[in-house]
Amino acid sequence: MTPLHLPSLHRLTSSGRLSRWGFVRLCLALALAFASLFTMICATALPAQAAPSSKAVRTDPPKHTEGDIGQLPAEVQAALQRAKVPSENFHVMVVDTHTGSTPRLSHQAQVRVNPASLMKLATTTAALDTLGPAFVWRTPVYVDGPVRDGVLQGNVYIRGSGDPRLGVERLWLLMRRIQGLGIQKIQGDIVLDRSAFDVPARDAASFDGEPLRPYNAAPDALLLNFKSLLIQFVPDRAANLARVQIEPPLAGVQFPTAVPLSNGDCNDYRGALRADWSDPTRIKFAGNFPAVCGEKMWPIAYAAPQQFAPRAITGMWQQLGGQLIGQVRDGSVPTHLQPIFNVESATLAETIRDINKFSNNVMAQQLFLTLSQQQRGVGSFDASREVMQRWWRERVGGEVPTFDNGSGLSREERISAQALARLLQVAWASPNMSELMSSLPVTGLDGTMKRSKAQASAHLKTGSLRDVAGVAGFVDTASGKRLVVVAILHHANANAARPALDAMIDWAGKQP
User: Fold this and answer.
1) Fold (CATH) for 137-345
2) How far apart are CA 215 and CA 204, in angstroms?
3) Mind listing the pLDDT tens digit for each residue in 20-47?
């Protein structure tokens, strides 16, 4: 039976004696407790043949683990039952923000599970704590050789430092700054130095067989535009076609500049295009584009990721009118060179907004690798796991989670709801609390929580993988308090049970 929790007597008494109002509150608490006991006895006495309706709450008590406190709310149990997810597959911790407080609800909270993208909370919290919110990545550019009449008699070197958001716009700016040095023609090569990260080659299809999904892009010390293309379709009804534009421009890659329009619906415009990615140098669309879709932007990972940076840099340089006699290749910056300029990233505080609000996996992995790169000179997954483990022991305490790549895009990472709640309590007490909280999606408003049906006001990170769905963060209560809430579904029907997450958020929001 669930332990009976009564208000402590020192909160109900005044000067050591029970006040009238305290007596009333004590009576009410006892009445509610005995009413709950009576309900439980009646429920267990129901005939076994009585079949519950589709909306009925299961009457058999859920399985509990050591440390469970309270029972799952009825509305949560009902949502789980509708999705056919057993309550033991729901891992929940609801607790006040200050460490050491007694949980308001703890259910299966000590069980270590795959948290999916909730693991980004550990990566971003550790980064704020160790690097600071004003940390920036610098991408230095070097010039080796004299410049005469607009011609560089030598090489340009670009050294990556792990910048997670070196997109098309900033690549354009980098090229323009090279031209600002008076260089229009490079007689030598453009050399890319990726030595800041030691990351083994990885098959983009290895995780889930979806190599063209941008979330499967591998980290890189010189990560350009997430190794992904942005393909824009703009309908031109007068010409009965949709014009096609691809960013960034890729040298040596052909693609159609237009596709025919159709009168179909927009439910699956990507399927209607019948794209052929089999030849990375020749992108084809054998289908058409539905006119009702309006303008669309399709992000897609380049089919030959190892060629992306050389083709993008060459293409951008040529688009700006530059000439390159040599080639774009990998290499190392000569030790005697000093950078001619640096391209700075956004601050860490801004970067983690993209990581958490939109659950960007490759950006999270870039940040994870940066943790060890900043301490040891070269970032690797093994070294960053050691950094995270040491940080956890020193700052969070308790059982250390199993870290893999820091993004949650993993079958190996493990953490309990209890440990995640403790992490959020530590984050709440940190001077960087406001930066972390502002990076979390807001229920019903933005990021991955934009479509949430929860009515409570909350800042919550989401996590989603096959068989995993969860939320973790901070929920505002009706009384103006703020609670730490962690809820993780671990079941084949996890995605169907998402209403249980919303119900859990709303229950927390109604707490006093």
Assistant:
1) D-tyrosyl-trna(Tyr) Deacylase; Chain: A; (3.50.80)
2) 9
3) 334 334 334 434 443 343 333 333 333 3
